[in-house]
Specification:
The chain is α/β, with parallel strands linked by helices and 267 residues long. It folds into 2 domains: 123 residues, Rossmann fold (3-Layer(aba) Sandwich); 123 residues, Rossmann fold (3-Layer(aba) Sandwich). Helices cover 37% and strands 22% of the residues. It has 11 helices and 11 strands. The strands form 2 sheets. The protein has a 6-stranded mixed beta sheet, with helices on both faces. A 5-stranded parallel beta sheet has the order 2-1-9-10-11, sandwiched between helices. Helix 8 crosses helix 9 and helix 8 runs parallel beside helix 10. The chain starts with 10 loop residues before the first strand and ends in a 10-residue tail after the last helix. 40% of the residues are buried.
Length: 267
């Protein structure tokens, strides 16, 4: 499939929450797509205390599994933790952590929670007879338990919930119209929860026709774990980004749809 010219740009459904949706939409537009924003999840900040739950002097490292943890990290905590090791998942989160000023940002070479656990264990090995290291985990209120369960076997893990992800209850008017007119050719998914809720919204709006919509929709996922959940949720035309980054998602979409970029640096 090949698209050329403004009038023939395909619509791509942007499911990301704001403000990440705006940045992702800009990258899609630069690659030759027409992004259509209809987030499936919204991110709400939670109240945070003046002081962190784990004193900096007792903290061996910080853990962030998404950009949302970084975006909601209290600014008045920053000076106390800027030199601490920061463990992140995905290059997008890694880049943001560095941009924020964290001096030692470590990113796993392997995807998912298991890759993160292996990284932390390698960097902070527990010595025989020594007390376990204290880690501060900055996360959302709803999350998968795999990471916490695994790290708690070797570390003292202190959780700080900084944000809450809430499901959107319907597609935007523009997204509903575009789907009904068969103008959306693809979507991008950045989390397992987004995959589930995207399917739920399609099924809620289209009923028995949702399966046909999902079968026709190219779904580019940021990781294999997200792809697995997308498939379980009914999506079938699935591609997985080479790396866990927004840029890699866009690149995979370009390759799958054979888009001619606006710039001379074509993929």
């Amino acid at each position: 499939m090949e698209f050329q010219g403004q009038d023939h740009q395909p619509f791509v459904w942007v499911t990301r929450p704001l403000p990440q949706a705006d940045d992702h939409a800009g990258a899609l537009a630069a690659a030759g797509f027409r992004p259509l924003l209809s987030p499936v999840i919204s991110i709400k900040p939670l109240p945070v205390p003046d002081r962190p739950p784990l004193p900096p002097v007792e903290t061996s490292g910080l853990i962030f599994t998404s950009v949302n943890g970084l975006l909601h990290f209290p600014k008045h905590w920053m000076a106390d933790y800027v030199a601490h090791p920061v463990f992140v998942s995905g290059t997008t989160t890694q880049n943001l952590a560095r941009d924020m000023g964290f001096q030692k940002v470590l990113c796993s070479d392997h995807q998912g929670s298991r890759g993160m656990v292996a990284l932390v264990r390698d960097e902070l090995p527990r010595r025989l007879g020594a007390s376990p290291s204290n880690l501060l985990y900055l996360a959302g209120r709803s999350r998968t338990p795999i990471l916490e369960e695994a790290l708690s076997q070797d570390f003292d893990l202190t959780l700080s919930e900084l944000y809450e992800a809430e499901f959107e209850h319907q597609l935007s008017d523009a997204a509903r119209e575009a789907f009904e007119n068969q103008q959306i050719v693809a979507t991008t998914l950045f989390s397992s929860r987004s995959a589930m809720q995207a399917a739920t919204l399609l099924q809620s709006h289209f009923g028995g026709s949702a399966k046909q919509v999902q079968d026709q929709l190219l779904t580019v996922c940021i990781s294999q774990a997200v792809a697995d959940r997308a498939r379980q949720s009914g999506f079938n035309r699935i591609a997985v980004a080479t790396m866990e980054s927004s840029d890699s998602v866009v690149d995979k979409l370009v390759k799958q749809l054979n888009i001619h970029r606006k710039s001379s640096n074509s993929i």
